Amino acid sequence: MKHLTKGIVLIVVLITNITSASTKIDIENFTKLPASRDTQISPDGKHLSIIMRKDNEDLLAVLDRKTMKPKGVFKVQGYRKSVGKVYWINNKRLVYTVTESSIWNKTQIENGELIGVNVDGSKHKVIFGYNSGQGQTGSRLNNQKAENGNHEIIDLMKGDDKHILIAFYPWLLDGNVWRSNPDVMPILYKLNVFTGNKRKVGNLPVPFADAIVDNNGEVRFASGRDKQGNNIVFHRETGKDKWQELKLENFEGRYISPLSFSKDNENIYLSANVGDGTRALYNYNIKLQTTKKLFHDEQVDMTLFIRDFSDKRIVAVGTDLDLPNYFYLDKKDFKSDLHIKLLQSFRDSDIMISSTTDDESLAVVYVYSDKNPGDYYLFETKQLTAQLLVSKHPQIDPKKMATTESFNFKARDGKTINAYITKPLNQKGKLPLVVLPHGGPHGVRDYWGYDWEVQLLANRGYAVLQVNFRGSGGFGTRFEIDGYGNWGSSMQDDLTDATLDLINKGIVDSKRICIYGASYGGYAALTGAFKEPDLYKCAIGSMGVYSLPMMFEKGDMPKRESGMNYLKKVLGEDVAVQKQRSPVFNAEKIKANVLLIHGAKDERVPIEQAESLKKAFDQIGKKYQWLKLSDEAHGYYDEENRKVIYTKILKFLDNNIGPKSK
Question: Beta strand pairing status for 625-629 and 593-599?
């Protein structure tokens, strides 16, 4: 069956004008937040949980699986709060995290709270976080006291219907603001999901550490960074032993990260960079202290990890340049076998098995691709049949979306660089091009998959270029380090060389090219405009960095020692070089038409950055377009704001490299 049942339609507000005879699709169809997400099945298979968006709120709905009628629809109490991630604890009870926006901007971030609720809506209460224990009395009040900080659920403790194991990362009150505490060791709590009572069962050995439990639920590995920022791993024989630093002699790997234990608890899977290259998967025998390399792709890192149905053991890893490619550690494992069969059924798509029943007869499967934002299916594992439950973006018709293709090109120094090209449907001849550099920039990369912004641009007739330039993550340590100190230099040249490659191949029109990006991408857009003044007809900078020296003075990064160290590492400390590579100090070189967009509440890249470029343009009499969002920060989360932004962007592109530019 590939239709939504009547029961779900009662909850989800579906958009009826999915497609029209025209190839131009309304902006709102792309800019809308997901209509549904995080669909899961209960352990006994009787219920489904779905996060659904209605009236600009995310609601948690629990449905009867057979009738698809709601058993309960819940919302987070409190202004600006919303449902985050959901976990089935047992057949009766769920817990979910809470996201919250501030008074001054609409960015949703997790606030450290956990809320428990029964399937019928009863016993709906905060069980952990800064509001836990409020309004409660009795001898156990101290056990439910408020906790200011973040948490991670590290074990759902299957077999124990009342408890979960969490790692708690306390905050520090700095004046009137709570912030992360870099000096405190995370606390391990056993938390009652009904009462909120908790019991401390230990600590992790380093601030902000990640924890790994074995198949018995004991925390035996942890990883993080020391005060110098170096990667460090700890282990112990049992959950009661003292932590010891893991030191592997004569091991080729660097930046080790423990992933999961083997089924027998005698080995642990590790990922590590092979020298300065990409990350590989290793098996480490704890008793023998020996390592064995299991999988390594020399071009790209592993980015996909599949765990077994206990959620404790890695059974497959994957890479994604084009369609994801998987390596299965145990093809006989039921989840591995099921994943292989699903990939064969859903061609040209990737598969995520989000949840399953305890008897493994039913699974919820998430299917997505470069053209499909994602569909959730109920899959019967014995009959091998799938029923469509709900779509993440039901208003999007994959048949009307463009294909994203991966390709490699040679940079001017001979370096091979990965990139993606998305070409508009039914367009012939040389195409107008939007170069879309990603933000970050270090440790971040572009991926194959559905990207609403790319698809919106392609729907308007533009080819879209995304480049994993030097400094991007996912292509080895050396590749990322090669970007340090090279903002506006080799990192920018990679964008230029990718664009020239498409011109030389006859794919794009050399006179109809615009460069557009956000955050670092905004920097790259305006830097490209002054470094290559004859290449780009227009440039759009969104929440961009335009003065590198200002990065050391304004925003949230200079307020932290770690932030200053990062800036010194990636930008260098030579102010003259910083100015040489900053759009503000090169405004007179920019020939392209310019559009600047910025959120007034941005703390990462404060609006003073955009205002400084605006002032530089005013001083030389250069015209530009300006859009300021009074209630947005570093990222645009309001649907109405998104509509305003992309209406402005599309009109600007249309006038510069679109039909109106001819």
Answer: parallel
| Tokens found for residue 343 | 């990939």
Residue 528, helix vs strand vs coil: helix
Segment 537-554 shows an average pLDDT of 94
What does the pLDDT average to over 514-521? 96
Q: Band of the pLDDT at 18, cuts 50, 70, 90?
A: very low
DSSP string, 309-336: TTSSSEEEEEE-SSS-EEEES-TTSHHH
Residue type, 368: Y
Is residue 430 within 8 A of residue 51, CB to CB? The reply is: no
DSSP 635: B
Fold classified for 402-661: Rossmann fold (3.40.50)
Q: Which residue, among 161, 152, 146, has the nearest Cα to 189 in the 3D structure?
A: 152
Of the chain, the end-to-end C-alpha distance in Å amounts to 47
CA distance 337 to 41: 20
**Nearest Cα to 456, choosing from 642, 638, 601?**
642
Alpha-carbon 445 to chain mean position: 11
Task: Look up tokens 């377009």; give the residue.
Answer: 625
Rg (CA), the chain: 26
pLDDT confidence tier of residue 233, bands split at 50, 70 and 90: very high
Average pLDDT over residues 4-25: 40
Dihedral sign (CA 553, 557, 561, 567): negative
Residue 662 structure tokens: 């001819």
Q: Return all residues near 211 (Cβ < 8 A) that are at least 6 apart.
A: 152, 154, 167, 186, 188, 204, 219, 221, 222
Query: CA distances (Å), 551 to each of 147, 180, 370, 558, 582, in order?
Result: 33, 21, 35, 7, 11
Residue with token string 């920039």 = 441
Tokens read off for 110: 């997790």
Residue identified by tokens 């930008």 is 571
| Higher-pLDDT residue of 339, 20 | 339
Q: What is the pLDDT of residue 389?
A: 96
The DSSP secondary structure of 443-489, one letter per residue, reads T----SS--HHHHHHHHTT-EEEEEE-TT-SSS-HHHHHTTTT-TTT
Distance CA 637, CA 641 (A): 8
Question: CA–CA separation, 114 vs 112, rounded Å?
Answer: 7
In Å, the largest CA–CA distance within the chain is 77
Domain boundaries, the chain: 402-661
Both structure tokens of 362: 């039913």
- The contacts of residue 230 (CB under 8 Å, 6+ apart) are none
373 cis-preceded (ω within 30 degrees of 0) = no
Structure tokens at 281: 């998967």
Contact 210, 222 (CB under 8 A): yes
**Closest CA relative to residue 33, chosen from 634, 639, 459, 457:** 639
